[in-house]
Amino acid sequence: MQSFIPPDVLLLGPGPSPVPPNVLAALARPTIGHLDPRFVGMMDELKDLLRYAFETDNALTLPVSAPGSAGMETAFVNLVEPGDTVVVCRNGVFGGRMRENVVRAGANAVVVDDAFGTPVDPNKVEAALKANPGAKALAFVHAETSTGVESDAEELCRLAREYGALAIVDAVTSLGGIPVRVDAWGADAVYSGSQKCLSAPPGLSPVTFSERAVEVIKSRRTPVQSWFLDLGLVMGYWQGGAARAYHHTAPINMLYALHEALLGLKEEGLEAAFARHRANHERLRDGLAAIGLDLLVAENVRLPQLNAVRVPEGVDEAAVRRRLLQDFSIEIGAGLGELAGRIWRIGLMGAGSTPQNVDRVVGALGECLGRKVA
Amino acid sequence: MQSFIPPDVLLLGPGPSPVPPNVLAALARPTIGHLDPRFVGMMDELKDLLRYAFETDNALTLPVSAPGSAGMETAFVNLVEPGDTVVVCRNGVFGGRMRENVVRAGANAVVVDDAFGTPVDPNKVEAALKANPGAKALAFVHAETSTGVESDAEELCRLAREYGALAIVDAVTSLGGIPVRVDAWGADAVYSGSQKCLSAPPGLSPVTFSERAVEVIKSRRTPVQSWFLDLGLVMGYWQGGAARAYHHTAPINMLYALHEALLGLKEEGLEAAFARHRANHERLRDGLAAIGLDLLVAENVRLPQLNAVRVPEGVDEAAVRRRLLQDFSIEIGAGLGELAGRIWRIGLMGAGSTPQNVDRVVGALGECLGRKVA
């Protein structure tokens, strides 16, 4: 057995996305102690950078020491108690995962279904909230990674507040790619991942909780079922000040990388990053059209960072992905769940969203399909 | 705000330990996809390397995508169900954390207490197992990071089997530093951390489960309360073969680093690594004695990799640690729990266990205390 030298692959799938050299360099800086005052200073900066990305002033804003799935679980196990009712929107794979989390927390999940490839329907959500007075929370995925659809987070958060429910928002694929306006929307618990539009390696999950959510956590009747994800304990570590309490050993080097990646986002500016994602999406859409490929999702609800491309009749989609990887060193994603075999997923996320990458993937796809650009 | 450039600190606390340059270099290699066949090949090697470190043939051996605390939780939430009884040994902070995990899994914890600084007493454990027939598991910490004590894992695992209980073993600080003979002991669930004697950065938790444990997981009456840590799902991802199912996005770069660190351990050889930890511990013991410092723990149960040093009367222990960090760039640890203020913890773990590091910390401590080596 030898050292593992990974191949150089252009990551244009649903994540991870390409990690820029300066972020990889930050990752490799010397490990220091998680209680070292210099590390603690970096943590404070990191929280501020996350507040910038989330457009929030929430005090409880931090990176959970595990991937986005753990960020999702952090939201549910801290806010939901046995016997609660949660309205869960399911218009893709990750809505289904939210439902799993609700059930495993001992709560009752009222599922609002919409077809894969369409957004969450606010009318159905309002009907569900009306039919379930006292629902503890409304949970939905802002940017469905499995379909490439954006749902109207602002409207859904507004409905949650109107009906007295907490708004739990999955922003794994949206943060850094399209606006995630936590405070303006009045969202209560929002989680994301380090490896999509933030351009850090996978392994961390930024989360932010409103004051209202913190009050709900503080007034729980039952202990949080997870020790590792218990925000009452995690807060003591991340917000401890002089009384900082040891909870777990933070993933030091991964936090260096997230800090560096977020600095890059701040330097570019959120609005500029959103515009870049939008422009490269349009370039991709036009390039795909030129080789006769079209997108699954209606134009007004398409995510610029995650493009669901219809697989043409008679094409072996897995063979195309294999050839892209082997002959062109480009990774794109397959469909998930009921969209398996029917779509490819092309991610243009974070540092991966460039015109050069768009041209490279369109050219390679055209070659694989024997369709030259018109 | 600027890029974070960490200081160069010699990490001789209770973890993280120093990460060698080749492991940092592996960490910074280009991120690839978690479903890329080359990555999957690396995962298979990683499982084999972990089996080497754990001295096991267990099929279910993998790194959990989060720090050691999550490895602990993985063991408890998968093996324990509401209503079960678990005998938990508590002779330090981490035994107390095990108890928390048992309670949060809805089970009944029977605690066997021993004084901080002493090992788990097998006689008390046997009495507890006798008094609680049908106990589902016996849980103990092999190497207590909070005190520097080794407990007799072989004897405790033997007792568990004799009384029909699963043996759950915390090997966070032991793996790679002293023998962790999973198969020879008949241990059922063992978890560790990447950042102690394995010399990778913090953030991953290697775990291994016996066939017996896998049977228990497969025959659960209730779902695992954690979605993220549900081994039924994690196994589908790590052991999936052709049917590999997506679970979560693996922390790709951290896994490169763990692979590289374990290659180093295998190249040195387990027995050579144990002998090195032992020899440097003895050098430290002698060096400390020469400046009038002695160790908390009795000689026959001392961990070579984690040394609890008594703080002399009248010495401000925090001031000494601050000076070590500021003037000598050496980090050592404070006491935890009831040992706070009474001990320092000097870790000689993994790549940190060298004669040069021993001499450096002894010399610096001597200067701080105004005690020159005799």
Task: Give an overview of the whole structure.
The structure is a homodimer of 374-residue chains. Chain A has 374 residues and is an alpha/beta fold. Chain A has two domains: 10-14 and 269-369, Aspartate Aminotransferase, domain 1, CATH 3.90.1150; 21-266, Aspartate Aminotransferase, domain 2, CATH 3.40.640. Helix content of chain A is 41%, strand content 15%. The first copy, chain A, is built from 13 helices and 14 strands. Chain A has helices at 21-27, 37-54, 68-79, 93-104, 122-131, 153-162, 182-185, 211-218, 231-238, 252-268, 270-290, 317-328, 355-369, and strands at residues 10-11, 60-64, 85-90, 108-113, 137-141, 143-144, 149-150, 166-170, 189-191, 205-209, 306-310, 330-331, 333-334, 343-347. Chain A has a seven-stranded mixed sheet, with helices on both faces. In chain A, a hairpin with an 8-residue loop joins β13 (333-334) and β14. Chains A and B meet through α1, α2, α3, α4 and α10 of A and α1, α2, α3, α4 and α10 of B.
Give the CATH topology of the largest domain in chain A: Aspartate Aminotransferase, domain 2
Number of separate helices of chain A: 13
Percent helix among the residues of chain A?
40-55%
Radius of gyration of chain A: 21 Å
Global morphology of chain A: globular
Distance between the termini of chain A: 48 Å
Low-confidence stretches of chain A: none
CATH architecture grouping of the largest domain in chain A? 3-Layer(aba) Sandwich
Number of strands of chain A: 14
The average pLDDT of chain A is 96
For this entry, what is the oligomeric state of its chains?
Answer: homodimer
* Largest interface, C-beta closer than 8 angstroms, per-chain residues: A-B, 78 and 78 residues
SS-based class of chain A: alpha/beta
Compressed to H and E, one letter per element, the order of chain A equals EHHEHEHEHEEEHEHEEHHHHEHEEEH
- Strand-residue proportion of chain A: 5-15%
